[in-house]
Specification:
Elements: H1 4-19, H2 37-49, H3 56-69, E1 73-77, H4 80-91, E2 106-110, H5 115-123, E3 127-131, H6 145-148, E4 153-159, H7 168-177, E5 181-185, E6 193-194, E7 197-198, E8 205-209, E9 222-226, H8 229-239, H9 287-297, H10 300-318, E10 325-326, E11 334-335, E12 341-345, H11 351-360, E13 389-390, H12 395-403, E14 404-407, H13 415-434
Parallel strand pairs: 2-3, 2-4, 3-13, 4-5, 5-8
Antiparallel strand pairs: 1-9, 6-7, 6-11, 8-9, 10-12, 12-14
Helix pairs in contact: 1-2, 2-9, 3-9, 4-5, 4-8, 10-13
The chain binds pyridoxal-5'-phosphate (PLP).
Amino acid sequence: MIDDKTKAKIKKLAEDFLKEEKPSNDRVPVSGKVFDRDELTNLIEASLEGWWTEGPWTARFEQGLKDFLGVKYVHACNSGSSANLLAFATLCSESLGSRRIKPGDEVITLACGFPTTVNPIIQNGCLPVFIDIEASTYNVEINHLEKALSPKTKAVMMAHTLGNPFNLKAVTNFCRKHKLWLIEDNCDALGSKYEGKFTGTFGDIATLSFYPAHHITTAEGGAVITNNSELSKIAVSIRDWGRHCWCPTGKDNTCKNRFNWKLGQLPEGYDHKYIYGELGYNLKMSDLHAAIGVAQLKKLDRFIKIRKENFGLLTDRLKKFEKYLILPQATINSEPCWFGYPITLKPEVDRQAFLKYLDEKGVGTRLLFAGNLLRQPYFERFSEGKDYRVATELKNTDMVMNRTFWLGLSPLTTKEMIEKINQVFQVYFEKRRDD
Ligand SMILES: Cc1ncc(COP(=O)(O)O)c(C=O)c1O
């Protein structure tokens, strides 16, 4: 640990560094890191301590997330994609016996979204079964769930699109009725609520991402969250090489039985540290990343408030253009903490031309990730029926691929920037009216 005097000096230096004139950039960003001297001080402190690998800062970060979300178990890992892989692999563990998801089983999901929500299903030898979304919320079309069901269905895995919670009441009822696992990809939805409760706390297991575009950042990072002690134990093991030993890094003999285990076909007393009970990876978060996260957690309430305010202000300014735009709608009974502000253009507006115009005017945009995953180049190598199944027409998914984009509303988007967006839209659509 570094002493308080040194820490104060570092804080001062970090402050001076942050005060240095940075080149001005009047572009409206879609997202980015929001930090101050606290993140830098934690990062320096963690690096001077010299632990670096997963350790005390990670434990603090995990505890902070547990306290915020009110969940029993949080396991930090090195990205949201890793968290999705880990969550799915956990449900495929042999330790779950007949309840496990096996190769060849089917998992209901969406083609509209981010690839690494779906990839773990394929990577574990299972079939994603795709259904469509609603045009208004960009989330699962609930009536399609039953249409996707087959005797092989074992789970539902989907994201809360751009932070807008999917209909958790309908989805959890569906999963309960058919005894399916529910994996919530909550990567874009930290702070969103459904019926007053945080998303990510409804399913059997859920995930978070802390990549800079997200609600808080650790640079690279993610987490698996669950209230299920059995899944928690399996997830830690798979995250940590598949090891059977549960000592925190740097500790020995937590089980008080280190040299007395007899497992598998290993000799009696084989060191517990090197006994592997799961098919594992190494997906751990480093303490340097977690140190950034500890500082970010203190800002989370403020970040959530700003995202919600920016959503309200953007809606207020853009609703006069509804002749040309479809504005986003929160799912009924939800309070989203939006990741981005999705807009679908009416068919008469050319998206390519409009996004080029926004770019020229300094307004950053992004597409709704992969659009329709089935139309991505990597998906061409998969064959329908063998590697995946399409259960319903993906009409709205294609609409998103062709006509949707999103604007930033993170704390980097100031009120002045929202007025700039308003003005830039105004000029474009006024010109159309005159044409
Ligand atoms: C819904 C969703 N899931 C997973 C991820 C992957 O997270 P990461 O970039 O941390 O791997 C993302 C990325 O933004 C995402 O939007």
